[in-house]
Automatic annotation (TrEMBL), chain A:
It comes from Paenibacillus oryzae. This is ABC transporter domain-containing protein. InterPro entries: AAA+_ATPase, ABC_transporter-like_ATP-bd, ABC_Transporter_VariousFunc, P-loop_NTPase. The keyword Magnesium does not apply. Residues 6-227 form the ABC transporter domain.
Automatic annotation (TrEMBL), chain B:
It comes from the Bacteria. Keywords: Membrane, Transmembrane, Transmembrane helix. It comes from Paenibacillus oryzae. The chain crosses the membrane at residues 18-36, 42-65, 86-106, 126-145, 152-171, 208-229. This is Uncharacterized protein. The lineage of its organism: Bacteria, Bacillati, Bacillota, Bacilli, Bacillales.
Length: 295, 235
């Protein structure tokens, strides 16, 4: 069994009279990835803040294991654009975190390269797009090479290419032993990320699924068959917005006849269709496709 | 701590929140001394009281300078919310120090007094201004929006505390016997004002106590605030 980093024991969290989290028991170990799924106001963000130690539980215990304690990186759901460049911002955060100047500068350059931002860009963060701010948010959380990375809606505002890029970055940090907790509304197309999913509903946690990596196939370098579905549906603007919010990595392409087309990996199909129908959308066609995947 | 102070300075400068209280103070001092001559320590009593109010306004702006999410991020990097809050109060005080130096130096250098101020008076006045600024900064941190249901509520209560602190002497006379103990919990700016207004007649012990009391009260206030916020965290 891998090393334990943080655990929550019988944690309850109440604000005023309302219970946000009740009887939460959770253990996070080195190298594991946990996906927290749930709608707005279900307690995902509160759970992340509790894990980060930013808020205290009303009752129960948060136990940090290890000496020195694990380094925790936290990215809130959105970052306010400050009147400074991304490099300046990271420099300030790095110094506050106590990172040596000689290691901080190369780290800032490395993170800019990883998240495809120009470190020499003199544009003020106030003028950054939501996606760019989200990247800076991820960068600040990764500054100290954390043992535990807590990400609140990290895919919000990112385009498809950035989402894929972020997922591959997460896969890389998971492989070096970083534990990751990601709070999302919907599913993530993370076929190559080993994770377990917990559903957060009315402040309670439910185990939803455990996705296993097909290690053998890829380790041998043999081609993997990717199965995806082409979904055609009739949606209005509100329904499109809802689906885009729940499935940020899915691109809904409008067609000439007013319908929408998109491609969904097999793992996320069931949830996508359920959300589409629940939103009031009309499913027109569903077509299975198989193709040679990544090695 | 230096890294936190540098970051807060960058944020505060680019927010321009410092502008209204700073300019009100500087222009206020220039305006008041447009009429000459003025008594030395009596004038400093006014500028120190004025700085007490201005430092409260500046500190309140610094305490709520960051948006909630950014505050979460900064306190994560700083290691604790207490450290961040201490840095904010310290930064507020450091920011107001040059205002105090201006209030002491401006009338002395431009001959606004009825006589030349002695070196002792200049040094003591600098100390009283610094103590008043520290007291103001340390009180304002309690009136952050994080501890109150609404901004209006916190501002109303803060205004009441300022008024009671400055008018404590008058309150002492109107409060029923026994109730005057309540005055002990008020920020002790009244000691500084009294010592400066009666500078020639009060003892040295009183002169020093009038400087130490606000510094001590402010330090205890900041310490208790840090403990409360550490327990409360960012709820």
């Amino acid at each position: 069994m891998t090393e334990l980093l943080v655990s929550l024991k019988n944690v309850h969290k109440r604000y005023g009279g309302s219970t946000v989290l009740s009887e939460v028991n959770l253990e996070l170990r080195k190298g594991e990835c946990l996906l927290l799924r749930g709608g707005n106001g279900q307690g995902k963000s509160t759970l992340l803040k509790l894990l980060a130690g930013l808020i205290a539980p009303t009752s129960g215990e948060r136990i940090i294991v290890g000496s020195p304690p694990p380094v925790i990186g936290y990215a809130p759901d959105r970052l306010a654009g400050l009147a400074m460049t991304s490099a300046d911002y990271l420099r300030h955060m790095g110094r506050i975190a106590g990172i040596e100047p000689r290691t901080l500068q190369p780290r800032i350059l490395e993170l800019h390269e990883r998240f495809r931002l120009d470190p020499a860009n003199k544009t003020n963060m106030r003028h950054y797009s939501k996606g760019m701010l989200q990247k800076v948010n991820m960068m600040q959380a990764s500054l100290r090479e954390p043992d535990l990375l807590l990400l609140d809606e990290p895919f919000s505002g990112l385009d498809k290419a950035s989402v894929e890029h972020l997922l591959s970055s997460l896969q890389a940090v998971q492989q070096i032993g970083t534990a990751i907790v990601v709070a999302v509304h919907g599913d993530i197309p993370a076929e190559y990320l080993l994770y377990r999913t917990l559903l957060v509903r009315n402040g309670e946690l439910f185990l939803e699924q455990e996705q296993e990596q097909e290690e053998g196939v890829r380790a041998k370098g043999s081609p993997q068959r990717e199965v995806r579905y082409e979904v055609k549906s009739k949606l209005d603007e509100r329904q499109v917005n809802r689906l885009e919010l729940s499935f940020p990595a899915v691109q809904l392409a409008p067609e000439d006849d007013g319908c929408y087309c998109c491609f969904i990996p097999e793992s996320g199909l069931q949830r996508f269709i359920a959300e589409l129908l629940e939103a009031g959308g009309i499913l027109l066609s569903l077509q299975r496709q198989e193709e040679e995947g990544k090695q | 701590m230096r890294a936190l102070l540098a970051y807060l300075h960058k944020c505060f400068m680019t927010s321009y929140r410092y502008a209204p209280p700073t300019f009100v103070y500087l222009l206020g001092i220039i305006f008041v001394y447009s009429v000459v001559p003025n008594p030395v320590m009596g004038s400093y009593a006014f500028s120190a009281s004025f700085l007490f109010i201005v430092s409260i306004a500046l500190s309140a702006a610094v305490i709520d300078l960051e948006r909630t999410n950014q505050e979460l991020v900064t306190s994560m990097h700083a290691g604790s919310l207490s450290k961040l809050n201490m840095a904010k109060v310290l930064y507020s005080w450091l920011f107001t120090l040059p205002l105090g130096w201006f209030a002491v130096a401006y009338p002395a250098l431009t001959n606004k007094f009825d006589r030349a101020a002695s070196l002792e008076e200049l040094l003591m006045a600098t100390g009283y201004h610094a103590a008043a600024a520290w007291l103001g900064a340390s009180i304002a941190c309690w009136f952050t929006v994080k501890l109150f249901a609404s901004r209006v509520q916190s501002l109303m209560l803060l205004a009441a505390v300022i008024a009671c602190s400055l008018g404590a002497k008058g309150l002492e006379n109107v409060l029923p016997q026994g109730w005057d103990n309540v005055l002990h919990v008020l920020p002790p700016i009244r000691f500084s004002i009294h010592a400066m207004m009666n500078y020639d007649s009060v003892s040295w012990a009183m002169k020093l106590w009038a400087m130490i009391a606000p510094l001590l009260y402010g330090s205890v206030s900041v310490l208790v605030f840090a403990i409360v916020m550490n327990k409360r965290k960012l709820n």
